[in-house]
From TrEMBL:
Domain of life: Bacteria
Protein name per Swiss-Prot or TrEMBL: Predicted DNA-binding transcriptional regulator YafY, contains an HTH and WYL domains
Molecular function as annotated in GO: DNA binding; DNA-binding transcription factor activity
Tagged with keyword DNA-binding: yes
Entry keyword Transcription regulation: yes
Domain HTH deoR-type: from-to ranges: 1-52
Keywords: DNA-binding, Transcription, Transcription regulation
Length: 311
């Protein structure tokens, strides 16, 4: 019965014969174990007939969960991270949930969790990072998991709120922001939506067949959209550092090409703080070619550091 619960908690639909084969039990035993789970408070939907099967769905209350060792450690580490996150209201709830998990966690798993936490450095939430309601995150995540059509209001940059009907695919956490990748039914195209601009998300109960995303995955789709989106500043700077060394710091947020004994850095950004951090962290001399605002910002930061060093 515990193995059955573990399979049902994937929330996929399991045909009866396939589930019996996986568990190596008869259909009669399978039906009996499903009935036992229902008695324990789990809501298991059943479809009769030749194509019949079972699927676990959320009920009125949360019944006990069955976790593998690795899953328990991952949840505890994730709750620690969420406790310091930028999702409004999530920090307090994460602390409460973490305390419950730790109280039941065997010592061997707690040691694994402490090892992961002690060897991982996290900068914590970005100052000024957009904050959104935790209920928005959970509603969108459930719709992605269940393949359920969503309605919500969306306020794009420098635009009025519009009503959207989308087929949600995946949530993406990138940099300081969260994104929803979804097929927009009204615009008949794929879109990425910032979660801090979404309000009043509402599942419709209508299911849909997943479409093929025109990218390697949801993360690549969001990154591609960011690169193509017009940004406020087009940054160009020549850095006296090997291109491969600077590229490791820039990652996918910019382009680094060899330039003589150094390299050329190009970035499209809305905020100049990130290129300032990259240039300062390079530990090399550099010349700002554009925009002029970046040269001014670098001079301001340099003067601030000079005053601190002279104090």
């Amino acid at each position: 019965m515990l193995r059955l619960l573990s399979l049902l908690q994937t929330h996929r639909y399991w045909p009866g014969p396939e589930l019996s084969d996986r568990l190596e039990v008869s259909p009669r035993t399978l039906r009996r174990d499903v009935d036992r789970l229902r008695e324990l408070g789990y809501t298991v939907d059943a479809v009769r007939g030749a194509a019949g099967g079972y699927q676990l769905r959320g009920g009125g209350s949360l019944p006990p969960l069955l976790l593998e060792d690795e899953e328990a450690v991952a949840i505890a580490v994730g709750l620690r991270t969420a406790a310091a996150g930028a999702v409004a209201g999530m920090d307090d709830w994460s602390v409460q949930a973490l305390s419950k998990v730790l109280s039941l966690m065997p010592p061997r798993l707690r040691r694994q969790m402490d090892a992961v936490a002690s060897q991982t450095e996290s900068p914590g939430p970005w100052e000024g990072a957009p904050v959104f309601d935790a209920a928005v995150l959970t509603t969108l995540a459930q719709a992605c998991r269940d393949g359920e059509l969503l309605r919500f209001d969306y306020t794009a940059r420098e635009a009025d709120a519009t009503h959207r009907r989308v087929e949600p695919l995946r949530l993406v956490s990138l940099g300081r922001r969260w994104y929803l990748v979804a097929w927009d039914r009204d615009r008949m195209d794929w879109r990425s939506f910032r979660l801090d601009r979404i309000s009043d998300p509402e599942p419709t109960g209508q299911r849909f067949r997943a479409r093929e995303l025109p990218a390697e995955d949801a993360l690549a789709f969001v990154q591609q959209g960011i690169r193509q989106r017009p940004q406020r500043y087009a940054v160009r700077a020549r850095v006296a550092l090997a291109a491969d060394l600077l590229a490791t710091q820039v990652g996918r947020w910019g382009t680094v090409t060899p330039d003589g004994e150094g390299c050329l850095l190009e970035m499209n950004v809305d905020d100049l703080d990130w290129p300032v951090m990259v240039l300062a962290g390079s530990g090399a001399d550099f010349v700002v070619e554009s925009p002029p605002e970046l040269a001014v910002r670098v001079a301001e930061v340099a003067a601030r550091f000079a005053r601190t060093g002279a104090a």
